[in-house]
Amino acid sequence: MRDGATGSGGRVAWDAAAAKAAFGFRGGRVSAGYGDVRRWPAGTVSAERSTNAMAGHAGLRDRVAVVTGASGGVGRVTARLLGERGAAVALLARGEVGLEAAAKDVRDAGGRALPVAVDASHYPAMRDAAERVEAELGPIDVWINTAFSSVFGPFTELDPEEFERVTRVTYLGFVWGTRVALERMRRRDRGVIVQTGSALAYRGVPLQSAYCGAKHAIQGFTESLRCELRHEKSNVRITMVQLPAVNTPQFDWVLSRLPKHPQPLPPIYQPEVAARALVYAAEHPRRREYWVGGSTALTLLANKVAPGLLDRYLARTGYRAQQTSSLPPTGVGNLWQPADGPGGRDYGAHGAFDPSAHGRSVQLWASQHHGALAGAALAGGAVLGLLRRRRNGRPG
């Protein structure tokens, strides 16, 4: 069955061969353009349903949230955390085995779950998925984009169709997810969109040219869209969470041209750290960005100050740091078909790097409590000034 078609039970299906053979739209002109702005009648959107009421766990109870890339890794933990907060969660991904297991995680956590098998790179399929979510769960309040694909290797060793596929999934998957969410949120004048970003959205690294390019594109797309929403004085919020390297199954199922098993650039964080940040951003969407991990902050700041120095450092260390001989090289990968699809297995949320992964992020805590930290810094400065004056014999 082709992408965008509806299978038995209304499930949005996809076909790996069709995905590889034809990347473009199927099903005609894209409808419901951004110029089609309609608002609900006055009074139909209550104050308790407004975006401004998202703060705190109670703000997500009984909300409808969509997570793309929900069958494994960060998306999977994010879906479970939303379930813990009482949300109705639509889980979107290609891998049906992983999706069903992830849906069970959500239900076990106390939430409602709707797994939908869909390829995020195809707009018609994503539009159909969003329609099904609203028909079965209700109006979408939160949309979190995490779905991506990648291929490891030097740029000149990647096949053009592989590079294009990564771009379509990792970049256009976010674009189409954002679009189908906005087509519904804008006419209600409420909703939250959370983009899963990366330190690599600001700073490219060797051996991941397709992924880095897509993440840079998402960054620019999101900034442009944020300006448009502000121009409209829209109450729809869009925020982005910049992540460090995360211990997910990506490194087990990614397509790789490397001689050794790919690994995250250290330091490595557990997917729970990333998922907590995404859920927090959904609850507190007024911040334009959140940075997770000290390495993210250092990378972004260093790239502003000394990008040439980083070029030389990554050229010297980036190849060795992204490979390990402690694991066998990866196989075909999940670029064209899901590793956790029919006949596959459930990979869960964690990858193979648990022993070296961090379970907390001081940078995330600081990002969440920047106001309190600023107040404490001001108070501390005032106290130090008072003590200095007293030591010098001057009255306070």
From TrEMBL:
SMART domains: PKS_KR
PROSITE patterns, per the entry: ADH_SHORT
Keywords noted in UniProt: Oxidoreductase
The keyword Acyltransferase is annotated on this UniProt entry: no
Any one annotated GO CC term: membrane
A GO molecular-function annotation: oxidoreductase activity
Similarity comment text for this entry: Belongs to the short-chain dehydrogenases/reductases (SDR) family.
Protein name: Ketoreductase domain-containing protein
Source organism per UniProt: Gandjariella thermophila
